[in-house]
Amino acid sequence: SALDNIQRKYNTPETQRIEQTEAMASTAASKKAANRLVVEEATTNDDNSVCNVHHDTMEKLSIYKGDIVLLKGKRRHNTVCMALPDDTCEGHKLRINKVARSNLRVRIADVMSEHLCHDAKFSRRVHILPLDDTVEGIAGNLFDVYLKPYFVDAYRPVHKGDLFLVRGGMRSVEFKVMEIDPAVEYCIVAADTEIFCEGEPVKREDEERLDDIGYDDVGGMGKPLTLIRELVELPLRHPQIFKSIGVKPPKGIHLYGPPGSGKTLIARAVANETGAFFFLINGPEIMSKMVGESESNLRKAFEEAEKNAPSIIFIDEIDSIAPNREKTHGEVERRIVSQLLMLMDGMKARAHVIVMGATNRPNSIDPALRRFGRFDREIDISVPDEVGRLEVLRIHTKNMKLDEDVNLEVIAKDTHGYVGADLAALCTEAALQCIREKMDVIDLEDDTLMPRS
Predict the structure, then answer these.
(1) What is the total count of domains within the chain?
(2) pLDDT band per the 50, 70, 90 thresholds, residue 129
(3) Do 286 and 309 belong to one domain?
(4) Does 451 reside within a domain?
(5) Are 365 and 436 members of one domain?
(6) If we measure between CA atoms, which residue out of 107, 98, 106, 118 comes closest to residue 50?
(7) What are the residue boundaries of the AAA+ ATPase domain, all occurrences included (predicted)?
(8) Nearest 5°: phi and psi at 315?
C-alpha cells in the first residue's frame, strides 16, 4: 500500500540514527533540567556533608542513597556531599546547611546543579588547618577534640579549598581543606586516611565566616520569617519581577513584638542570607543635643545605604525616634519624624533599599509612618509556641554536651511564655550551673584547662 511505501522510504538506517540521536538529546536536556535544583535550608539534617533531595529527583538523576554528588554553585565554586532522600523536599529542590551554602556561594532560593561523582576515591592523606580567629585561646589537641570525632567512621567527602565548621569542646572551630593526596579536587576521608593538621592556622583575610547569623539560627517563627523573606528577598534580589508586573516594590517593614523575641536577629539573618549591606540604627543613639545633627545622622544613614545597595536599614527601637507627633512635646522628635518621612518618600522605587523598623510599642509610632508606601507591612513577632520553643532550644544547645536525661521536648512544654532570649538565658544558666558544681575540682590557675567530655 501507499502507507507501507512511505514507511519503507523513511524507515532507513540514517533516519533511525537521526531519531535515536534526537531521543538521546531530548533525554540529556531533560536530565540537565532535572540537575538544576533550587536551594532550600536544611531542616531535618544539619550535617555539613549531606544534601537532601526528593526520591523522585534522585531517580531521574540515577543517584542512589549514599552516593557522593558534586554540587556546582556560583562563580565556579563547587563542593561534594552525600545524597540522602527526603520526601518532604518537594519538586526540584535541594536542602543543604549553611556551611555547604557558604562554600558554594549560594543562598536560599538560588538555583544550582547536582551531578553524580563517578570518580570520588578514598584519599591517602588530607591536610586540614584551622582558621586563626576560631582557635584563639584553645590550648588542647585539635585533632583529638575536633577532627577525630568529626571524621571517624563517617566516610565524609571533602573538597579542596572548602571551609567546614566542627562543634566540640564547648566551641566551634572552622577548618579549611588545604591539600588532598593524591592531588585531586575532592575525595572521601576513609578510616585509613591520614589527617594531617600541623601548620600555622589560616588567616581569615578573605575567607567568609561560616558562623554568621543565617536562617538556620532563627527558630520559632516560621510564618513571620517566610513573610519577611517574601517582602525583603524579592525586592533586593529579584527587583525585575516587580518591574515586569508594573508595581513598586515594598519600601519598609515594621516588626513589633515583646523584647527578646528575635526582631533584630531576623533582620541580621535576612541581610546575611541575601548578601545585602546592613546598616543598624539604634534609635536613642541617633539623638543629639546639637540642633539639626539628629536629622543629619539620619540622612547620612540613608545615603550610605543607597550607595551600598542592595541594603537593609534596620531602625531598632523606632518608637524612640519617631513617636506620635500629637503626643510628644519635644521639637527634636517632631523634626526627626518629618525627616524620616521625607527620606522614605524620597527613596527611589528601584533604589534596592529596604527599611525595617522594630519596636515593642507599635501604637507609640507616628501614624503617618504606618501607612502604605512607607512601612508597607506590619508583622507581629509574637511569643513562640511549644514547637517554636523546641526549635529555639535545639539551636541554642547544638554546641552543648547534653546529659542523656535532658529532654528538650519536656523543657519546651514547661517554658510557656518564654521568648527566644529567655530560652538562650536558660541554656547559659544551665551551663553555668554545671561549672558551679565542679568549681571545687577546677584549677583556675591551669593554663591548659580543657572541658571534660
Answers:
(1) 4
(2) very high
(3) yes
(4) no
(5) no
(6) 98
(7) 249-385
(8) -105, 105
Angle in degrees, CA 302, 304, 307, rounded to 5:
110
Domain for residue 201, yes or no? no
pTM as predicted: 0.63
Q: Are residue 372 and residue 413 in the same domain, yes or no?
A: no
Residue at 367 is within a domain: yes
Report the pLDDT averaged over residues 134-154. Answer: 87
Look at the block and give the residue holding cell 554546641.
399
User: Grid coordinates representing 420?
Assistant: 527566644
* Cα–Cα dist 38/106, whole Å: 10
Asked, for residue 434, whether it belongs to a domain, the answer is yes
The candidate with the shortest Cα–Cα distance to 267, out of 241, 305, 234, 228, is 228
Taking alpha carbons only, the member of 358, 319, 351 closest to residue 337 is 319
Show which of 80, 97, 116 is a domain's final residue: 116
Q: Looking at the structure, do residues 267 and 291 belong to the same domain, yes or no?
A: yes
- CATH code, domain carrying 147: 3.10.330.10
Whether residue 418 contacts residue 429, with contact meaning beta carbons closer than 8 Å, is answered with: no
All 3 cell numbers of residue 233?
528577598
Q: Which positions ≥6 away from 297 have C-beta within 8 Å?
A: 286, 288
Lowest-pLDDT range of 24-38, 63-77, 278-292, 308-322: 24-38
User: How do residues 59-85 score in pLDDT, each as one tens digit?
Assistant: 888 999 999 999 998 767 899 999 999
Q: Of 329, 349, 380, which residue constitutes the final position of a domain?
A: 380
228 closest CA partner among 260, 258, 259, 271: 271
Instruction: Assess whether 221 and 189 both reside in one domain.
Output: no
Other Cβ atoms within 10 Å of 334 Cβ, number: 14
Same domain, 329 and 426: no
Q: Which domain holds residue 155?
A: 125-196
Going across the sheet that includes 163-168, the strands are 163-168, 171-181, 125-130, 194-196
- Based on the domain organization, do 408 and 371 belong to the same domain? no
DSSP 355-407: EEEEES-GGGB-GGGGSTTTS-EEEE-----HHHHHHHHHHHHTTS---TT--
Q: What average pLDDT is seen over the chain? A: 83
Q: What is the CATH number of the domain that holds 333?
A: 3.40.50.300
- Residue 277: the pLDDT is 85
pLDDT digits (tens, 9 = 90+) for 353-401: 899 999 988 888 888 888 888 888 899 999 999 999 999 998 888 778 7
Q: What is the DSSP string of 7-39?
A: HHHH-SHHHHHHHHHHHHHHHHHHHHHHHEEEE
Residues 239 and 310 placed together within one structural domain of the fold: yes
**What mean pLDDT comes out for the span 239-248?**
83
Report the candidate in 182, 167, 174, 73 with the shortest Cα–Cα distance to residue 129: 174
